[in-house]
Amino acid sequence: MCGGSVTALEQRRDELSKITQLDGKIASELQQLRQRMDQMQAESKQFQGADQMRQQSESTKQQLAAERSSLKQQREAIKGELQAALRQSEAAKQVRRLGHCPLDVSSVWLVTN
Known about the structure:
Elements: H1 2-98
């Protein structure tokens, strides 16, 4: 019987050793899973930041489009003012050159009785 109990004891020690090794592996895997969870949470925050950036980008894009439209209108208004100023300048040059106001047929009104 003694010989049989030594074998049973050895089997129990082997089982205990395997359980201890398994416990270490489980602890190691848990540690890796915790690290992976932390990493995934950090990535999740980055994606949330990306969504905010996307929204902010869209808002900025709309603001810039509105500003661009406004600047185009201002440019057209300034072009009109510049053309009027150039016409006045040309008329002033012509007055100085001719010594009198040139006759502009488009601005003459005929009065008939």
